[in-house]
Design a protein that fits this description.
This protein is an alpha/beta fold and 217 residues long. The chain is 47% helix and 10% strand.
Length: 217
């Protein structure tokens, strides 16, 4: 996916998230991360009323059809991995997404999934908090959900009182500052491993580094 030009891409990017903590995190990135493109483009975190796989990808497709240049979908996998039907649906979408990104869609497939060429899919397994852990250590330890990783998360510097609340994310020091700013993000990007659908039930992953590859400083 091509890198952005702050002037030509202004107000043409939308971020779809499936939880409020991702929304608060992106808001703080917009405020603090030293990328002029991220500050000026119309990054608009929003989440649909329903959070099933079909609904999330339908929401992304709608945004593409509304002529957004790029749609970024940040997807937590915890609930998907717990529901076999949702998991099977995700695997189909993920396969089509990978084909679209690699230019492997045939004409029939392109008619249905060509919109995914404008999609940047970012997978967190099990959740965004695993990305926060990568700011401090390199790991692929498997966690089923947030509750299973919470104890390890709270052992990390400045995260001992972590809460899933808007007040926590925005109070001083805010979540961006607690995670070490640019230096913390750079560490997390080095520690991150790309999502592997074949290892989804054995390892944890965060692809948030793709977000920062897109919004280069």
């Amino acid at each position: 996916m091509r890198k952005i030009n702050p002037r030509s891409f202004r107000h043409t990017i939308v971020v779809i998230v499936d939880g409020e903590d991702e929304k608060w995190y992106v808001e703080k990135l917009k405020e603090h991360y030293p990328c002029s493109a991220l500050r000026t483009v119309g990054v608009k975190p929003e989440f649909p009323d329903k959070k099933q796989v079909d609904d999330l990808f339908a929401c992304a497709r709608t945004k593409v059809e509304e002529q957004f240049e790029t749609v970024i979908l940040i997807l937590d996998m915890d609930n998907i991995l717990k529901d076999s039907r949702e998991w099977e649906k995700f695997k189909v979408y993920y396969s089509r997404y990978c084909d679209a990104q690699a230019g492997r869609l045939n004409p029939r497939q392109k008619a249905h999934h060509g919109w995914m060429m404008k999609l940047l899919l970012i997978v967190n397994a099990p959740c965004i908090e695993f990305w926060y852990m990568l700011h401090h250590l390199k790991t692929t330890k498997y966690y089923q959900d947030f509750l299973s990783l919470r104890a390890d998360l709270k052992k990390l510097p400045r995260l001992d009182d972590y809460e899933k609340s808007e007040a926590y994310y925005k109070k001083s020091p805010n979540i961006y500052q607690r995670l070490g700013g640019v230096q913390g993000i750079q560490t997390a990007c080095r520690n991150a491993e790309p999502f592997n659908v074949q290892a989804a039930f054995q390892q944890s992953f965060s692809e948030m580094s793709k977000f920062f590859d897109y919004f280069k400083i």
